[in-house]
Amino acid sequence: MNSKRKLLVLICVFTLIFTFYISPNIVFASQSLYVAGIPAGFTIKTSGIEVIGLSEIVTDEGKFSPSKDIDIRIGDIITKIGNEEIFDASSIAKILSLSKGEPIEITVVRKGEVINKFLTPKQDKDGKYKLGLFLREDLNGIGTITYFKENREFCALGHPIVNENQDSLNIHSGDAYECSIFGLTAGEKGKAGELKGIFLDDRKIGCLLKNTKTGIYGKANEEYDLSKFPKMEIGIAKMGKARILTCIDGIKPMEYAINIVKIDDNNKENKNFVIKIKDKQLLSITSGILQGMSGSPIIQNGKIVGAITHVFLNDPTRGFGISIQNMLEN
Predict the structure, then answer these.
(1) Which of 168, 260, 175, 253 is nearest to 219 (CA)?
(2) Which of 189, 279, 285, 305 has the highest CB neighbour count under 10 A?
(3) Domain 56-131 maps to which CATH number in 1.10.510.10, 1.10.10.10, 3.40.800.20, 2.30.42.10?
(4) Is position 90 annotated as part of the catalytic site?
(5) What is the pLDDT of residues 228-284, one digit of tens each?
(6) Is 279 a catalytic residue?
(7) CATH 2.30.42.10 domain residues, the chain
(8) Which of 159, 287, 296, 323 is catalytic?
(9) How confident is the model at residue 88 (pLDDT cuts 50, 70, 90)?
(10) What pLDDT digit, counting tens, does each position of 138-154 carry?
(11) C-alpha span between 315 and 216 (Å, rounded)
């Protein structure tokens, strides 16, 4: 191979490597987003029902705990009984009634593993067949919507919704509503504070689509007005001064001063940087980051660079943030 051809090959290889690593940021930087920062109420129905407690069934023959006997555990997700998929408690009651106390197969998901077991329902003194479980079929909570895209897709929280075992939940269906903050509990060392809000049922934002390590994603209704939100370009976070857009009273978000004190671009989930609250007004009211602020946009030099995800329990003035690139990749 002559020297000119070698040089051409090297240039081509370098160009490919350069394009591979740089072009994603160029693509992201060319986008603009509607930056929200609004509190939202989420109603979620999961795929399956979560076990939140075990109980005994009082029968004429004594007390029994059929689920405990076959090692059903708190945090397990019941996805099927027999051949029927489970989405709510009423479907379980119907299946148990038809079982007449005969052994039935139950499918649970535990830390991502699918487990099949057989259990025998027991009839209580009221004549109802039961499994000896306390179940949770719906979830409700508040958080912050970070952004909307032009196609009306949105992302909130910046982290997943998890169960008792800190496993991510699969969303079967769900909705997002505007929310009004009416109070809060300030944070303190060793205990996270929280925002308190009420769902505005007449102000539905849209539906939820999926729950991931980088947030919950959904799509706004066609009639939901996005023009009320400022439009910003996407930026890349740098160490130094920045601001968060969050709401601690009513429905209108406000900007508050923070510092980005550490950056980790290699984290592919939701801990790309550490932030510290510097705004004296916010600190005097909240003592720092509260539960419900997750998803609050982080703005730097007039661009959106990420969102708050977690608070440090030993120091509520500090917390983690996720980069906007990670949120958009999902």
Answers:
(1) 175
(2) 305
(3) 2.30.42.10
(4) no
(5) 999 999 999 999 999 999 999 999 999 999 999 999 988 888 899 999 999 999 999
(6) yes
(7) 56-131
(8) 159
(9) confident
(10) 788 899 999 999 999 99
(11) 26
Confidence of residue 26 (pLDDT cuts 50, 70, 90): very low
User: What tens digit of pLDDT does each residue of 229-240 get?
Assistant: 999 999 999 999
Active site annotation includes 159: yes
Pick the catalytic residue from 124, 167, 249, 279. Answer: 279
- pLDDT, tens digit, 9 for 90 and up, residues 71-84: 999 888 898 998 88
Looking at domain 35-44+139-329, which of 3.10.20.30, 3.30.470.20, 2.40.10.120, 1.10.3720.10 is its CATH number? 2.40.10.120
Q: Note every long-range contact of 100-107, with CB atoms under 8 Å and residues 24 or more positions apart, other chains counting.
A: 100/129, 101/129, 105/80, 105/81, 106/72, 106/78, 106/80, 106/81, 106/131, 107/78, 107/79, 107/80, 107/81
Ranges of CATH 2.40.10.120 domains, the chain:
35-44+139-329
Residue of 294, 296, 310, 323 with catalytic role: 294
